[in-house]
Amino acid sequence: MQSAATFSSPLTASGRFYKLCAQILQPSSQRHQSSYRRQRSKLNIKPDASFLPSQTEQHDHIIHNPPPSLPNVYHTPNIFLPDNDRRKIIPDPETSKARLLLSQQIPAMKGQQEKSYHLTIKEVEEMKELRKADPLHWSVKRLSKKYECSPLFTMYATMGLAPGKQEQQKLVTEIVKSRWGKKRREAREDRELRKERWYRDEVDELSDTFIERLRKAVAIPSVSADEDKRKDVVRMGQFLAAELESLGAEVQQRPLGKQPGKEHLDLPPVIIARYGNDKSKRTILVYGHYDVQPALLEDGWATEPFKLTIDEKGRMYGRGSTDDKGPVLGWLNAIEAHQKAGVDFPVNLLCCFEGMEEYGSEGLDDFIKAEAKQFFKDADAVCISDNYWLGTEKPCLTYGLRGCNYYSVQISGPGQDLHSGVFGGTAHEPMTDLMAVMGKLVDVNGKILIPGINEMVAPVTEEEKALYGPIAYTMDNLYESLGSKTGIFDDKDRTLMARWRYPSLSIHGVEGAFSAPGAKTVIPAKVIGKFSIRTVPDMESGKVNEAVYKFVKDEFVKLGSKNTLDVSCQHDGKWWVASPKHWNFSAASKAVKEVFGVEPDMTREGGSIPVTITFEEATGKNVLLLPMGSSTDAAHSINEKLDRRNYIEGIKLLGAYLHYVAEEPMVDA
């Protein structure tokens, strides 16, 4: 039988075993603990005596440890020194004499010496010449190595000497992208799509903020045709500039000088802005206008024209809501939504917003031409949102506009207006002659009767015909717009071609004739008839004018009238057609499909937007018309509106377009 001292149970033995194992494994098992916990005993250092209260001077336990920045120990204030400290024999540091003493003790700093550079001016000039001659070979890195200087110095010394390198780098990027396999391309597209969806979700979250921004803009009566409202036009420009600056854009308000014919008036400034300056990104130039048409409640508006009013169907009524404040603010809203969503803005954005579009864009053409090689020089493409969908449900991209030649036909005879009861039947009447001449210009089916006009029109190609079939448009859409069933044609294709790609002649009115309500038996002494011809490819303005002048004069001669005639062209605007296959359009098409789930209609417009041609000719870049509003928005009319859906989804579309245009292969068509 074992004694109690020697007895050991299995449990006790196993306990000792595990304890032994724990001791063996202790160093490695504690590796997960912090360094401080494992080595804190080594950090237990006793403080130096100078850090502790003085043991000899118990009456004063103030401790002074002068910082290393002090020149020497003599700067310790005497109050902190013990009574028996020998440093107290040094004079008070606050006295000028003491300062002199200290200045003698402190060694003088090294005197300023003339800077020396290992590069000579001649070598810097050589560096510039090499960079300018071959920027691809003589990169900043290679030049820095050759001349043994920093890349930063080289970059500043040769800045602006490689203007074509950006385009060459873009070309290299496009070549690299063209070699991507299917999986890599799909992965990149999927990644960009996810980012773009984050952005779209943020637009929904910020929708009330964006509507409030539009409300503030509509409240400013920026009527460019009204002299009394010129201050409001300028105020609207300042509002835009402030909003852009708050979003981080670099903004300039550029004056255009005095208004022609009204020298007491300054033209509203052009607001130009840049958002982003990343050389690796494409640069898109966008245009819009911040002025509006006149509007008064007594004109027939159902609501106050300069107060944004939203009805139960989401229709936002207000002057400028769709033309063009809503689309202009759409670009600003796109910037803000990207910022709030934390999504990188895909392009560099250049903005050009004018304040005289509704009054002929006076001064803008010269400004654009001057800035084409300056502020706008980096633009890769242009986008304008200042037109409308063909219908109300399906978005469109516009690739063509008709031009407009506007004419005046003046016929005069008597020296003053005559009484028809006294002189009727005794004199050649100008109004009768005018009606006879203008009645020969066009027939009741819209056919232009001036010889040579129709022969100038480019023939329809099979490729162009194919664009009309998918367009979502019916004759009922036309009848709804007309308010009657008075259309000339009975089918969609011929109606759209007559509206877009064939010329038309319209008579607009007569100046000098009686037009007020009631009856007035007057024979006007002089009348001026007004008509215009909408021009299309390949009509040349000069040749059109020649044909019009000859025809009008010949018809007047046939009358045998003793009155006199004068015909002139008041103004002309060229037609414009772009290729719908250009990469700018293909990017926008993908954006429409992404946001609205449908392929966009490829349309042309019967009207004119002269600035489109100005941008194309001045910059040499493709111009895209990307509308936000629908055909029922009543721009320029009473009760102008922009549907909430078009505004919010339009902001998403503008953002999606920028994402797609940032990646679309640059294939010109």
TrEMBL record:
Keyword RNA-binding annotated: no
One GO process term, biological-process aspect: proteolysis
Keyword terms, alphabetized: Hydrolase, Metal-binding, Protease
Molecular-function annotations in GO: metal ion binding; peptidase activity
Pfam families for the chain: M20_dimer, MRP-L20, Peptidase_M20
Gene3D superfamilies in the cross-refs: 3.30.70.360, Zn peptidases
InterPro entries: Cyt/Met_Dipeptidase, Peptidase_M20, Peptidase_M20_dimer
UniProt xrefs under CDD domains: M20_dipept_like_CNDP
Domain Peptidase M20 dimerisation: 408-557
Family: Belongs to the peptidase M20A family.
Official protein name in the record: Peptidase M20 dimerisation domain-containing protein
Organism this protein belongs to: Vermiconidia calcicola
